[in-house]
Amino acid sequence: QVQVVESGGGLVQPGGSLRLSCAASGSIFSIYIMGWYRQAPGKQRELVATITRGGSTNYGDSVKGRFTISTDNAKNTVYLQMNSLKPEDTAVYYCNFRGLVRLGTPFDSWGQGTQVIVSL
Questions:
Q1: Disulfide engineering: 85 pairs with which of 11, 71, 115, 118, CB 3.0-4.6 Å?
Q2: Which residues neighbour 29 within 8 Å (Cβ) at sequence distance 6 or greater?
Q3: How many other CB atoms sit within 10 Å of the CB of residue 2?
Q4: Are 21 and 95 in contact (CB under 8 A)?
Q5: What distances in angstroms separate CA 13 from CA 80, 84, 88, 93, 108, one per listed residue?
Q6: pLDDT range class, residue 47, cuts 50, 70, 90
Q7: DSSP-derived 3-state class of residue 59
């Protein structure tokens, strides 16, 4: 079983920055992709950013140039640096890890979510 725990959300003013962290632990054989998603009230969950074990990244159009995803593979941890935050970035942010708990047995684990509020 793989546990995923996020931290770093909170209240920030427009134009400000926040850094989210997310760590996976438990029965992990390998991780091949990590990502951040978000869900605003009344909206569907959307992609924020993903990163592979090898470092290839993908960003949602609305965050390109403002957010940066990075990892510490040795610690099974993924980060999301969020700069130039806008009120429309307000959402619950979810972390996701996908990989193998053993050869041939995949996992797809989500964190509990961390709230980000961008407001004066």
A1: 118
A2: 99, 100, 101, 102, 103, 105
A3: 18
A4: no
A5: 17, 9, 12, 17, 33
A6: very high
A7: strand
Cβ proximity of 20 and 89 under 8 Å: no
Q: What is the pLDDT of residue 76?
A: 94
Contacts of 42 (CB under 8 A, 6+ apart): none
Distance separating alpha carbons of residues 63 and 47, to the nearest angstrom: 10
Measure the CA–CA gap between 100 and 28, rounded to whole angstroms: 6
pLDDT at residue 73, rounded to an integer: 87
User: Residue type at 55?
Assistant: G
Q: What is the pLDDT of residues 58-74, one digit of tens each?
A: 999 999 999 999 999 89
Instruction: Indicate the helix (H) or strand (E) that contains 115.
Output: strand 114-118
Torsion of CA 95, 83, 91, 32, to 10 degrees: -20
Q: Report which DSSP code applies to 84.
A: S
